Amino acid sequence: MSGEGSASGAVGRKRGPQTCPRGETLPLPPDFGKRQIEYRSAGVPHGQSTRLKDSPLLQFALNSNEQARLAELITVDLLPYRRIDWDMVDRLGQRERIEQLLGEKFRLVLDCDAPQCKELMLEFHATFEYKQGSYEEKDAVSFSLGRKVYEMTIP
Fold first, then answer.
1. Which residue has the higher pLDDT, 12 or 83?
2. Rounded CA gap, 115 and 117, in Å?
3. Which terminus of the chain, N or C, has less C-beta within 10 A?
């Protein structure tokens, strides 16, 4: 009876979506990077207006999906703005460790002020799209931050 069957019983079966090993990239689909989000004007520069509707990040084209979503989102209470309490981190003696974990880019992002943070959150949620069933595709998820469109796989 030796040699009959396999202990794993999985010979020849696929195990779901295949991913690339770290550092390797999959070829991009021909329509990758094609999502465009139209804005109607430059808006008022950050810090020169207290009205959200004046924000350059929220000047979506009239009658666009993004503008319709923004109209709904602007009335929703978002999570309260929070930032890292660096004084507390210093008292705990963990500043260097936290800065290393975050890296320079994330430290800069987490230091934005409350009004700008709200503008970025509204822009993100108004532009977020997920293509259902496209887990591994390079544009499965797309959104805009700072008027720049980002596309990525779910992993």
1. 83
2. 5
3. N
Place of tokens 């109607």: 40
Expressed as residue numbers, the domain containing 85 is: 52-152
Q: Do 139 and 32 meet the contact criterion of CB atoms below 8 Å apart?
A: yes
Is 22 a domain residue? no
User: Phi/psi of residue 60, each to 5°?
Assistant: -70, 150
In a domain, 100, yes or no: yes
Q: How many residues does the chain have?
A: 155
Q: What is the pLDDT at residue 15?
A: 46
Looking at the structure of the chain, the number of domains it has is 1
Query: What six digits make up the tokens of 118?
Result: 């709200």
Residue with tokens 């800065």, as numbered in its chain: 99
Q: Answer whether residue 92 is part of any domain.
A: yes
pTM for the structure as a whole: 0.62
Q: Decide if 131 is inside a domain.
A: yes
